[in-house]
């Protein structure tokens, strides 16, 4: 069935970064904008984002890009995992730069100190203390792992931030996956490359997640040579 969620646009991600991820951004705001940018650039579902671990060997940041290892996903039926690579593009909405800032501001522990210690996901609950915002839990255990922020909480925060930033369309957590793929399509990225990046099994699924804005859709008839 055709998806009815509207797509997030690149300018929306930039707007959210300008509103909520400035130099004095709070930990919860920076975490949300980072999550939005990473989902957009990585074509991630919310369930994918919830699994993004900050462990040093599962979230690797370099000068050119970052590599995120997803242990499992909806399309990974064999359970072999996927590595999502996201380029460093610069600017206030860069997913790599935002991730680096978030890891630093949140004081995440990225290296387990003993076997069975859980360092937790990138997206998680935050508490307010006399010292300011802090991660609710820095580490957990294999028996009691740190949970990601819930889908409902994420959706509500996303919609509140979009409203504040003046983004009128009905944005949902899946809007970033649709928007990232659609933005790539509008800029000439091949269907095969988008299928691989989005971890889709067929071209039909890629098309299902593609939304072309009016100006892009009109380019077809503008280039027919009728003028």
UniProtKB/TrEMBL annotation:
SUPFAM superfamilies named among the record's database cross-references: DNA breaking-rejoining enzymes
GO MF terms held by the record: DNA binding
InterPro entries: DNA_brk_join_enz, Integrase-like_cat_sf, Phage_Integrase-like_Recomb
GO BP, one annotated term: DNA recombination
Domain of life from the UniProt record: Eukaryota
Gene3D superfamilies in alphabetical order: Intergrase catalytic core
Keyword annotations of the record: DNA recombination
Name of protein: Tyr recombinase domain-containing protein
Organism in which the protein naturally occurs: Volvox reticuliferus
């Amino acid at each position: 069935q055709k998806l009815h969620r509207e797509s997030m646009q690149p300018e929306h991600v930039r707007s959210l970064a300008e509103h909520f991820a400035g130099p004095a951004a709070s930990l919860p705001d920076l975490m949300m904008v980072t999550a939005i940018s990473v989902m957009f650039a990585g074509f991630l579902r919310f369930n994918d984002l919830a699994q993004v671990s900050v462990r040093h060997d599962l979230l690797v940041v370099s000068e050119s890009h970052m590599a995120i290892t997803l242990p499992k996903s909806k399309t990974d039926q064999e359970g072999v995992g996927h590595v999502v690579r996201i380029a460093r593009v610069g600017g206030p909405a860069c997913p790599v730069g935002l991730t680096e800032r978030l890891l630093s501001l949140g004081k995440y522990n990225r290296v387990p100190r003993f076997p069975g210690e859980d360092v937790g996901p990138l997206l998680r609950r935050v508490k307010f203390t006399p010292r300011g915002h802090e991660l609710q839990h820095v580490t957990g255990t294999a028996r009691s792992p740190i949970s990601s922020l819930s889908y409902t909480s994420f959706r509500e925060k996303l919609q509140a931030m979009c409203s504040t930033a003046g983004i009128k369309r009905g944005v949902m957590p899946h809007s970033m996956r649709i928007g990232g793929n659609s933005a790539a399509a509008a800029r000439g990225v091949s269907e095969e490359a988008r299928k691989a990046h989005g971890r889709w099994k067929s071209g039909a699924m890629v098309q299902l997640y593609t939304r072309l804005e009016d100006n892009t859709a009109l380019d077809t008839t503008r280039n027919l040579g009728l003028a």
